[in-house]
Design brief:
By secondary structure, the chain is an alpha+beta fold. The chain has one domain: Extracellular Endonuclease, Chain A, CATH 3.40.570. It has 5 helices and 7 strands; from the N terminus they run E-H-H-E-H-E-H-E-E-E-E-H.
Amino acid sequence: MPAFKIIDNTCLIENEQERGEMMLKSNLQSDPKSNLQSYPKSNLQAYNSDYEGSRYDKGHLYPHCHAPDEETSKSTFTLTNTAPQRCDFNRFWYSKVEAKVNKALTTCVAAKKTPYVVTGVVPDTGSNPLTLKKDSQVNVPTHFWTAYCCCDNNDKECQFGAFILEREADEPDEFKTSTAPPRRQGAAARSDPRRK
């Protein structure tokens, strides 16, 4: 489970999702069109079988609803793009966060501005971390979070937003700013010790 994922709308994966299961990168290497390298099976990788009999969904980090096209949407269905979410949490996260972020990004692109998104989880690091099921190595994160900004093309005006939702909560915390002050590159350059 990655701690965070920077969302990039490029796609290297060209296989389709099979039988409703998430794809493993190791399963995709047989595709001659794939740019993925071959790696041995690992106990650090989650598998579909880890989720069987658990009470958790495979929650997307990069949501397929943010994908700009079908090919990119398909690429979101890998287990390296998921983290465990309770079924009701998955619905809350979609309706209260992903849908709002998607609307903000759509507005951003329509205004010919540039969107940036980073999303991730907070792993459970307690003395007895919650896992998918007994004897599982798959950690259930304590929080899901996402942050985004929408900048004009000269990067002088940006709008920022962020959400974080605790795994047992029903409502996310939302953070928003309307604009950021212009960057002061001259002051930053003068304070850089590498510059004279």
